[in-house]
Amino acid sequence: MQFDSNPAARTLDAHQRLNEFYGVQAIYGRADPMHELIGTILSHRTTHANEVTAYRTMRERFPTWEQVRDAPLPDLIDAIRTANYPEVKAPYIQNLLAHLFRETGAANIDFLNDLSTEDAMKWLTDLPGIGLKTATLLLLFNFQKPVLPVDTHVHRVTQRLGLIGPKVSAEKAHALLLSYLPPDAGVLFNFHKHFYWHGQRICTWYTPKCPDCVLRDTCDHYQSGGKTALSSTPVRKARTG
Ligand code: SF4
């Protein structure tokens, strides 16, 4: 099939198809933005179950954010040890809390609701340890701001489809994909969720289930027989020995 080479049109087409496949969702997120913020730091490179256990243990041992901030570092590392890299994440969390208390007098970020999207993004990404992905997840899920989190699944699927170029990084994909989509939090939430689920369930890392994919007739990776080199999917190293 000959498909539209315009990436904005192709992005909207893929979005519509996944809307039909997965169903349109209302925006949802954790009720407490501080939980979302700290939970997202804990969630890096670990499973959801491990993140949940780490967060729960941390709050049981240190019920207030002041206690988390002031905890001896080894104790906090131990409390979040089910999340990978606890020795990296614990100082991030303490630095972040110290910064929040210094700047705002409390561990409360509800005021982001009243900031413009640009100002809220800048404020968050200026925090120690908060990158584009964490900031966009928080602003979209908790404050319904029109931003687009690009995680490893969204990056891989959009790159395989050819909506972004083969060398475009996840950071650059954020602005690129955003420019193809309407600045509407509901649309962006569904785009993120559906591409995330698609990457988890169908367009998986090593063996995408292309015969089951509703996007295969418009997919560059499928049309090329999986031969395109992509920055989101490094080639698996051959086993030695
Ligand atoms: S056709 Fe295959 S490679 Fe392309 S998006 Fe679908 S599952 Fe991924």
From TrEMBL:
Q: Which GO terms describe its molecular function?
A: endonuclease activity
Q: Which InterPro entries match?
A: DNA_glycosylase, HhH-GPD_domain, HhH_base_excis_C
Q: Which residues form the HhH-GPD domain?
A: 42-201
Q: Pfam families in the record, alphabetically?
A: HhH-GPD (PF00730)
Q: Which domain of life is it from?
A: Bacteria
Q: Name one GO biological process term.
A: base-excision repair
Q: What PANTHER family would the database entry show?
A: HYPOTHETICAL BASE EXCISION DNA REPAIR PROTEIN (EUROFUNG), PTHR47203
Quote the protein name from its UniProt record: Endonuclease III
Taxon lineage:
Bacteria, Pseudomonadati, Bacteroidota, Cytophagia, Cytophagales
